[in-house]
Structure formats: C-alpha cells, structure tokens
Amino acid sequence: MLLALLSSPKSWYLRDLQRAAAGEHDIVPVTFAHMTAALGAGDAKWTSGGVDLRAADALLVRTMPPGSLEQVVFRMDVLARLKAAGTAVINPPRAIEAAVDKYLALAKLQAAGLRVPRTIVCQTADDAMEGFRALGGDVVLKPLFGAEGRGIARLVDEDLALRAFTMLEQLGAVLYLQEFVPHEGADLRLLVIGRRVLGMRRRNLLDWRTNVSRGATAEPLEVHADLAIMAIKAADAIGAPLAGVDLVPGQNGELYAIEVNAVPGWKALSAALDVDVAQLVLEYVESVVGEK
C-alpha cells in the first residue's frame, strides 16, 4: 500500500506509522503547502512535492495548518476531488471541515442526541456580554478554529470579559462562549478508529484545561459499552471514522460532549495504554483500501 501522509516531514506520527508499517507499506509525507492541481490536459492531476496523489492508495490527513481563506478552500477542494476520483481520503474533507468549526461540530453533536454544554456564538461584544450573563458569568471563551487548548480562556469577571469581547470584535472574530462545566480536574479523550474505541483520562490538578500539551497526565480508561456508543455516535455525527472525542464528566455525573478532532493525535494515548495505536490505524486504512 502506498500511503500519502499529510504531515510535516519531521512529524512524530510519520515516524510512528513508518515504524508500525515495518516496510510492508510505503508511507510518504506530503504537505498542504505544496499541493498543485493540473486540469485541461487529459485527466486531472494532483501532486504535492512531486508525489502523484492519485497514485496513492490512501491519503491520511495528519495536520491542518493555518492559511488564508483561499488556501484553505483550495486544499479542501483538492481533498474532495481526490475522494471523488476514488482515493481513500481519511478523514473525508467534509468531516475535517465540520470538526475544525467548533460551532458546526457542536451543532451536529447536539442534533445527534448528545448532551453538549450551553453555548452561545455571536459576533458583537454586546451580544457576547448578554451571553456571558445568560451562561452564569463563568464561561470558556474559545477561538472558533483551534485545537490543543490554544487561545482559550476562562472568564468570570465582567470587565475582563468586555475587554476580551471588544478586542475580538475589532479583529472580526466570531465569539464562541461555552458555559464552564465544573469537573474534578479530568476529562475523557476517546479515540475512534473505525468501530474500535480506545480511551484515556486526562488529569490536570494545576489547571482547569486538561490537554496533555498543557501539562495534564494521561492514564488508562476502561471504555465500557455506553462510552463506546457515545464516542462512535459523536464521530459519526461529524462523519469522521478516525476521530478524537472529548467528553467532560460534570459533577452531577452527566457526560458532556465538548468537541471532535478529525486530525487526532495518539502519542499520549499509545503511551498510557501501551498499545500500538499506529498499527491499529494502519489496519483500519488497509480495510478501507481493501473495500475499494
């Protein structure tokens, strides 16, 4: 199998997948920045850094770098055309588009019947202040696009909230406010690989943010049937067969679906569970390619 991996050539995930492949598959890195499309001379052709993407059996998206609106639209267009041409694109471009947009992802999770925190999304500081008060004066402000806890802040002071909302309005940002769900300093990260679900508990006693990149520790989590069903339902709502699902257990015992990551990492999970996640990912990709 020839697997094109959209990632940095220096990515840990590239090395991990190549290790797991053990020479049985050819895994080559490609980048969004070097994507090129050629039309009008026979069949359409898509390349990245000299790699013919149509020749790949599968394209695995392992990064979603920032770019201008034109660049992002073009990159998603290329993924969509490759998928339409028969290449196994994991995750599908529609799933990536949905997951990267916190509002759209949360709306899809709620529509699928999952419990989500009260959330208000608006565009002006005045509307955000109304939302701040409606959510109890304790909110988590998040960028609409973003991951790994970057750019998020917990706001409990009206003056600080107004300053933050005013600055973001001036920048033309969308204001995404979510009620803070009190928890015991831990959340659950579930990794969906097809119909298989792995899990870990991320615990941070020094910060309300539970991202491993923010200093949280990861410990094994027994994924019982209800958790697995919830994770698969969340992944299906986004349309991502390979997904990281974040759940927060509230102090009332209820589980809240926070977001779905369509470019999920597994470095911390693999270490916490002592499981070769890269091998499981390759097996899933093989199964998708085998069905084509």
Report what the structure shows.
- This protein has 3 domains: 2-90, 3-Layer(aba) Sandwich (Rossmann fold), CATH 3.40.50.20; 119-179, 2-Layer Sandwich (Dna Ligase, domain 1); 183-284, ATP-grasp fold, B domain (D-amino Acid Aminotransferase, Chain A, domain 1, 2-Layer Sandwich), CATH 3.30.470.20.
- It is 35% helix and 27% strand.
- It is built from 9 helices and 16 strands.
- It is globular.
- The protein starts with a strand and ends with a helix.
How many individual helices? 9
Q: Write down the secondary-structure element order.
A: EHEEEEEHEHHEHEEHEEEEHEEHH
The H-level CATH homologous superfamily of the largest domain, spelled out, is ATP-grasp fold, B domain
Q: Indicate the mean pLDDT.
A: 92
Radius of gyration: 20 Å
> Structurally, how many domains make up the residues?
3
What structural class do the secondary elements suggest?
alpha+beta
Largest sheet: 5 strands, antiparallel
Quick recap of the structure?
This protein has 292 residues and is an alpha+beta fold. The protein is built from 9 helices and 16 strands. It has helices at residues 12-21, 69-84, 93-100, 102-111, 125-134, 158-170, 225-238, 267-273, 277-291; strands at residues 2-6, 26-30, 35-38, 45-48, 51-52, 58-61, 88-90, 119-122, 139-142, 153-155, 175-179, 186-193, 196-203, 217-220, 242-249, 255-261.
